[in-house]
TrEMBL record:
Key words of the record: Transducer
PAS domain span: 33-84
Pfam families named among the record's database cross-references: MCPsignal, PAS_4
Protein name, per record: PAS domain S-box protein
SUPFAM superfamilies: Methyl-accepting chemotaxis protein (MCP) signaling domain, PYP-like sensor domain (PAS domain)
Domain Methyl-accepting transducer residue range list: 163-399
Region Disordered: start-end pairs: 1-24
Domain PAC span(s) in chain numbering: 98-151
GO BP: any one term: chemotaxis
GO molecular function terms attached to this record: transmembrane signaling receptor activity
PANTHER family tied to this protein: LYSOZYME-LIKE PROTEIN-RELATED, METHYL-ACCEPTING CHEMOTAXIS PROTEIN MCPB
Entries under CDD domains matching the protein: PAS
UniProt GO cellular component terms: membrane
C-alpha cells in the first residue's frame, strides 16, 4: 500500500499532474506506463468511466481503446455475480485489492474470458482519489483447462463410480448367484452320488437279469430240443397209431370173416343134427325090423344099436359144437364190435396225436422264437450292463466334476468378496482423489 502511494505520488510528480480529480490529467509518464504494461490494464475515474485502455486489454476483450474510452467499465467488463468492476470497488474503498477468485466476462466476439484482477486507487498530489487502475491477468487458458480438467474429473468420477456401482452390483449378484450355484452344486453332488448309487444297483440288477436271461435262454434251448424230440415221438406214435388202426381194421375184417365162418359151421351143425336125427330114425327103424324078425336079425339089431349110439353121440357132440359155435358167434360179434370201437378210438387217438403234433410244432416254433428273443434280450441286456457301467463311470466323473465345480464356485464367491472389498477401497481412493483435485483446482 505504501509503495503504491509512493508510486502514485511519483506518477503525479513526473506527470506534472494536478488535483482536479481527473486521471486523464495525469502525465504522459503514467499513460506510457499503462500502455507499456504486458498485462491488460485500464484506468477509470471516480465515476467508473474508462479513461485509459491499453492494447493488451484491447486484445483480450476485442475492444479497441477508441471505443472503450468513455464507456462505463462495468458495461465493458461486467462480471457475473458482481455489481461493479474491481477498479470501481477500489475507487470507492480507497484500498488496493488482489482478488483470489476469477472474474469472467464476454468479449466483443461473445467468447468468455477469465482474468484475475488486481486494482489500486490513483491519488492526486493532495492525496485525493481520482480513480483507479485495474490489471487483468488473463487466465482464460488456465481456467478453461481447469474447467476441462474438472469436467473430465467429474466425468471420470461419475463413470468410475457408475462402473464401480455396476461392478459392485454385479459382484453382489455374482456372489448371490455363486451362493445359489454353490447350493445347487452341492445338491447336484448329493443327487449325483445318489444317482451313482442307483446306477450301481441298476448295473448289478442288469447283470442279474443278463445272467437270468442266459439261464432262461439255455432252458428255452432245452425246451426247443425237448419239443423237437417230442414231435419226433409224437410222429412215431402217429405212425404206430396208423399201423394199429390198419391192423384193427384187418382184425375187424377177420372178425367179420370169422363170424361168417361160424355161421357156416352152424349150418354144418344143423346138417349134422339133421343127419343125427335121420340116423336115430334109421336106428329106430332097424330095431323095429329086428323085433319083427324075432331074433333072426340079431346082427342087424347090434348095428342098429351102434348106429343109434353113434347118432346119440353125434347129437351130443353136435349140441356141444352148437354151444361152442354159439359162444364163438357171441365172441366174434363182441370182437367185431370191440374192434370197430377200438378202431374208432384209435382213429380218434390218431387225430388227437396229429393235433398234438401240430400243437407241438407251434410250441416248438414259439420256443424257437422265444429262444431267439431271449438270446437277443440277453445280448441287449449285456449291452445294457456295459452301458450301465459306462453311465456309472460317467456319473462318478460327473460327481467329481460337480465337486470341483462346487469348490470353484466357493473360490469364485470368495474372490467376489475380495473384489468387493477392493472396489470399496477403489471407491474411497476415488473420493480422496476427487477431494484433492477440488482442493488443487480451487486453490489455483
Amino acid at each position: 500500500m505504501a509503495s503504491t502511494e509512493a508510486s502514485d505520488t511519483a506518477i503525479g510528480s513526473h506527470g506534472g499532474g494536478n488535483s482536479d480529480g481527473d486521471p486523464s490529467s495525469l502525465g504522459p509518464v503514467f499513460v506510457g506506463l499503462v500502455e507499456a504494461l504486458p498485462e491488460a490494464a485500464f484506468v477509470v475515474d471516480r465515476e467508473g468511466t474508462i479513461t485509459h485502455w491499453n492494447s493488451a486489454v484491447a486484445d483480450m476483450l476485442g475492444l479497441p481503446a477508441s471505443e472503450a474510452v468513455g464507456l462505463n467499465a462495468y458495461d465493458v467488463f461486467g462480471t457475473e455475480g458482481e455489481e461493479e468492476t474491481l477498479a470501481e470497488t477500489v475507487t470507492r474503498t480507497g484500498e488496493p485489492v488482489r482478488e483470489e477468485s476469477f472474474r469472467s466476462a464476454e468479449n466483443a466476439d461473445g467468447e468468455v474470458v477469465h482474468a484475475r484482477a488486481v486494482a489500486t486507487p490513483l491519488r492526486a498530489g493532495d492525496g485525493g482519489i481520482v480513480g483507479a487502475v485495474e490489471f487483468l491477468l488473463d487466465v482464460t487458458d488456465v481456467v478453461e483447462r481447469q474447467k476441462s480438467l474438472r469436467d473430465l474429473q467429474r466425468e471420470f468420477s461419475e463413470e468410475v463410480e457408475t462402473a464401480v456401482a455396476e461392478i459392485r452390483g454385479n459382484a453382489e449378484s455374482v456372489a448371490a448367484r455363486s451362493d445359489d450355484i454353490s447350493g445347487i452344486t452341492s445338491d447336484q453332488v448329493e443327487e449325483l452320488e445318489h444317482v451313482r448309487s442307483e446306477i450301481s444297483g441298476f448295473s448289478a440288477t442288469v447283470e442279474e437279469i443278463a445272467s437270468s436271461a442266459e439261464q432262461v435262454s439255455e432252458r428255452a434251448a432245452t425246451v426247443t430240443d425237448l419239443g423237437e424230440e417230442s414231435i419226433e415221438t409224437t410222429e412215431t406214435l402217429v405212425d404206430r397209431a396208423e399201423t394199429v388202426a390198419a391192423e384193427s381194421e384187418l382184425m375187424a375184417e377177420n372178425a367179420s370173416l370169422l363170424g361168417e365162418r361160424v355161421e357156416e359151421v352152424a349150418e354144418f351143425v344143423e346138417v349134422i343134427d339133421g343127419i343125427a336125427d335121420k340116423t336115430n330114425m334109421l336106428a329106430l327103424n332097424a330095431n323095429i325090423e329086428a323085433a319083427r324078425g324075432e331074433g333072426n336079425h340079431g346082427g342087424f339089431e347090434v348095428v342098429a344099436n351102434e348106429i343109434k349110439e353113434l347118432a346119440d353121440e353125434s347129437v351130443e357132440h353136435s349140441d356141444r359144437v352148437e354151444e361152442t359155435v354159439s359162444e364163438i358167434r357171441e365172441v366174434a360179434a363182441e370182437t367185431e364190435s370191440s374192434v370197430h370201437e377200438t378202431d374208432d378210438e384209435i382213429q380218434e387217438i390218431g387225430d388227437a396225436l396229429e393235433e398234438i403234433r401240430r400243437n407241438q410244432e407251434e410250441i416248438l416254433s414259439a420256443a424257437t422264437e422265444t429262444d431267439d428273443g431271449i438270446a437277443e434280450i440277453a445280448d441287449a441286456t449285456d449291452d445294457q450292463a456295459v452301458a450301465a457301467e459306462e453311465v456309472a463311470s460317467m456319473a462318478d466323473e460327473a460327481a467329481e466334476r460337480a465337486g470341483e465345480a462346487s469348490t470353484a464356485v466357493d473360490e469364485l464367491a470368495q474372490a467376489n468378496r475380495d473384489q468387493s472389498e477392493r472396489l470399496e477401497a477403489i471407491e474411497e481412493s476415488i473420493h480422496r482423489v476427487d477431494a484433492r483435485m477440488d482442493e488443487l483446482l480451487d486453490g489455483t
